[in-house]
Design a protein that fits this description.
Blueprint lengths: L1 E5 L3 H12 L4 E5 L2 H10 L4 E4 L8 H10 L6 E5 L4 H9 L4 E4 L4 H15 L7 E3 L2 E4 L4 E4 L2 E2 L4 H12 L5 E2 H9 L9 H13 L4 E4 L3 E4 L2
Parallel strand pairs: 1-2, 1-3, 3-4, 4-5
Antiparallel strand pairs: 6-7, 7-8, 8-9, 10-12, 11-12
Length: 218
Amino acid sequence: MRILLVEDDAMLADALATALGQRDVVIDWARDAAEARLALVDHDYAAVLLDLGLPSGSGLAVLASMRARYDTTPVIIMTARDRLTDRIEGLDAGADDYLVKPFPVDELQARLRAVLRRSLGRVAPVLRCGDVVVDPASRAVSSSGVPVALSTHEYRTLLALMEKPGKALSRTALEDAVYGSDSVIESNTVAVYVHQLRRKLGEDLIETVHGYGYRMRA
């Protein structure tokens, strides 16, 4: 099981990685919000352990960007902020649990097991456009009932378009949906993903809006 740990305290991160590693958990460590965004773009994780006070952005912003693109990965906030208003804000932003520092590692492990159990039954809205169906809960994509394998970036491009069928999305908006607003990418990257989606799902599925971007045919 692979987990993303977003924590700027090196000593705490090392202690958690050691303790969880004894339970066959592989930890990827992101030291700030920018690293976390990149890791979440490139990998799928069983869960995210998220600090709120981070360099180069807040943990809540990282969480908001995840939920905005239907990333339902379980998130446990770990923070020294113990006010009720902070807890409410974190949970309302989409966190699955909220743990105040300092905490026993055994408690973190128990809470982690709990959110993983709950995530197995999570329901997210199924998106449909013609014969194409996307299930954000399982990240499954099918066309005419046949499963279609997509890369992570292809999937996120498709998901962004299917959220708003018939509405034109700019190339910049699609880049933000796939990579996050802080990333720098090549100018033709979205066009490559759209080309791959057309090849796999049908040439007529995605329409080019010349000089602007793309839209999913309603």
